[in-house]
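GNAT family N-acetyltransferase, pasting as requested.
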Amino acid sequence: MSDESAVRVRSAEARDLDGVLAIQEEDQPENGGTLSARFSREWFAQAAEDEFLIVAEVGDRVAGYVAFTPREAQAHVGVVRAMLRAHPDPGAYLHGPICVGREFRRRGLAVALFRAHRERMHGAPVMAFIRADNVSSRAAHVGMGMREVAEFECDGVRYVVVAA
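Structure tokens follow.
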């Protein structure tokens, strides 16, 4: 029997994709969430294969995930292009998306995921964007050691750039 309170943070595998996609979907704006982009199963599968996707698992369920990629892997996303114009840091890789399932929030999973990917990337420079009105995500990222370094607008929405 699995311990439902134990959290395991590990590299994502193909078997995790349904859970990752379900969490992504519940955090889309039309479902009351704050994600700014929707990535395909194929994109997540490639990130997992390239070892740029980490999951937090509680029991046998995916409870959260974080992707961290070279900027080329997200160059197709308009808001990413806008962020790179606002804060062009050629040495930084991209942090995100990071998302924790609603029922697993406020348990430290985002911090655990962030630490795991920072360790995987050996502390290399990292950057991400957050909707300016997403106060909880901004506070969480600052709490993880990132700092707000720029602001930009894309499609009428204000964002902040965070970096570490």
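Note for the archive: The chain has five helices and seven strands.
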